[in-house]
Every structure is written in C-alpha cells, then in structure tokens.
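Researcher: We're reviewing a set of sequences before deciding which ones to prioritize for further study. For each one, I'd like a predicted 3D structure that I can look through quickly. This is Pyruvate dehydrogenase E3 / dihydrolipoamide dehydrogenase. If possible, include the structure in token form so it fits the rest of the review sheet.
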Amino acid sequence: MMSMASKVLIVGDGDAGTIMANKLRFHTDIKDVEITVVGNSKEHYFKPDGVHISFSMIDYKRSVKPTEFLFNYGVNYVRDEVTRIDVADKTVSTKSGRNLDYDYLIIATGDRFTPEDIPGYETDAKHFYDLPHALELQKEIKSFKGGKIVIGQASIPIMCPPAPYEFTFLLEEYLNFHGLKDKTEIHYIYPLNRVFTIPNVSDFVAKRMEERGIITHTLFNVESVDPKNKKIQSLEGESINYDLLVLIPPHRGQKVITDSGLADDSGYIDVDKYKLNYKDYDNVFAIGDATNLPVSKAGATAHFQSMYLSNRIASETSGNIYNELYEGDVACTTVTGYEKGVTLYFNYNKPPKAKFDSKLDYFLKWQSADTFFSSMVRGVA
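Model: Here's the predicted structure for Pyruvate dehydrogenase E3 / dihydrolipoamide dehydrogenase, in token form for your review sheet.
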C-alpha cells in the first residue's frame, strides 16, 4: 500500500516563507512531501536595499522580483489571503473560501507597520522600509538644502535592526559630498540607553557617530510627532525640532495571528527558542519576523531558521528522530559609511564582535540583492 505524502503548509510568501519552501523542497522528494505556500504578494521586495535606494545609489528595479517566479519546481503556490489559522483543527482558512489542511504548519507571516500608534506620524515622518516610502524619501533627500534631520525608530523591535544607523552614516557622507554638512545637524534617537540593542555593537557605532558629529539621544521612546511645529516628543519628556524626520514606524505581528489567538501582546508568536514550535504542538512552527524570539528580525535569520527546520521536517517525514536544536544563528552585514561595512556573526550564546570597518563588507551589502535572489531565497545558500 502506497503511503500518502506529508502535507507541509507554509503561511506567508515573504523572505521566511519562500526560503523555507525552497529549502525543504531540496531536502525532500515530491512523492514524500507536498509543499504548499499561501500568500498574497505579487512582488517580492528586497528590503535591505531601501537604505541605498534612499540615496539613489542603486536602481530600485534590481530589488524587486515577481513573487511566483521565486518558488522552485515542486512548490505549490496559492495566491490568497489567510484569514484564520486553527491549530486545533489543523486547518487554515482564506479570504476566497479555501480551507487548507496540513500535517505540518509553518507560520511565516512577517510583521506589519502600525504608524497609527504614533499620533502625527503619518502626516510628516518619512522612512525607507518599503519601496514606495524609500522612493518618497529619495525625493526628500534630493531637495534637502540644510537644517536639522532627526533619524531613529519609533519602537523596538523592528526588522533589520541596524538599518537606522546605516542610514545615518550614509546620510552624513552624502551631506559631506554635497557640501551640506556644515548646514545640517544630524540627530539620532534610540529607545534604549545606548545607540543599538547589542552592547558591544552599540559601542562601535556610538564611537563612529561621535567622530562624525552626529548628536545622539538615547532613552528616547517616541510618544508623538507634531507636524505643525516640526517637533518629535518622547515619553521621557524630551522634544526635538526637525526639518526632516526619518522615523522607522512601529512594528507588530500580522492581524491574522492575533485574530487566530496565536499572538502575544505585540502580535508575535511565542515559540520554543530551540525547536521553533508553537506551545505544545510538535507540528506547528513559526519562523522569521512572525516570532518573538530574541534574535534579529532579518532575512539572514529566516535563512538559518529554515536550514534547521527543513532538516528537521525532512528527517521526521523519513521516519527518523531529529535531535538537533536551533541555536539562534544570525549573520548580518551592515553599512557604516560609503565603502565601509562590518559583518556580524552571532547566536544565543556568542555575542557579535565589531572591531573594524571593511570595504569588502560594504560591497557584500551593496550587492546582497543579487545574492539573495540568485541563491539564498532559492534555498541553495
């Protein structure tokens, strides 16, 4: 008697969902494992390019690919919006009326922006975390002639945590190149009592900000934006005037996660930090930005999580026991200026070390969209 193929359902067609599907396809046979991805994105945007797009340093067209094009042969792609996830009944419901069942469920829904959480934000704040806003900011920067620029993030966590300081360093170099440095004050705000979440990376970044005349404001948790008076106010009582405000909006998990009763207070999924499974379910997992794990919300994080989980599912569907654990691995190349960058490697037990800038690391970052679309997202990296 022929055994039925195991059904793996992946909810989400962003970085995490796409990488996971393609990696799992490499590790399993089509006759043994059926892989279905459900999502509603027409295009896949490589978000880390937003920093460079803002300064017209790359053509945004290289940063976008058709979503359907990115799935390997043997991955079923369903374009639809998920409206409900029922882990007890092992079904996923969609807007079009589909009810999809599964043997394994992988939730990779990412996160969403909630600018409405900050009064006044949507009227005046700019950011570069999606393509339309990156192009809008590009126009603002081209027309900027001097004044006070405030850069930061409204809250923690955000995807791609180094991006605000990357933007700040490139802005300083841009202003210097265009003869605007002496006409501009750059202010960098951060919610914690340092300029970055990881202490030794924070020290590295803070030193370079001081060297470049960037004014830092720590313990600045944004309460509101006053567009009329061009002022940003913190919960701690500090206010800063601005001419241009570049503020990463608050992030939360997707609404469907909350509606399905799977979310914490911020809309993210609480999973086992070593096995990635949800609560007591050994067939329900979450990866990427959808989780509340203490790791960076980044494509590289999803890559390592997908490596672990694809090996685990491939082993289990072959009738084997998989005892390996996910260790929180992250590899992140960040920009520290024009033709300057640093690559950070870390996990739950090993903090990153940032000691010096590298021209090679900068170019790794600059061309990372090509690497992402040609290999990482395809599951071959």
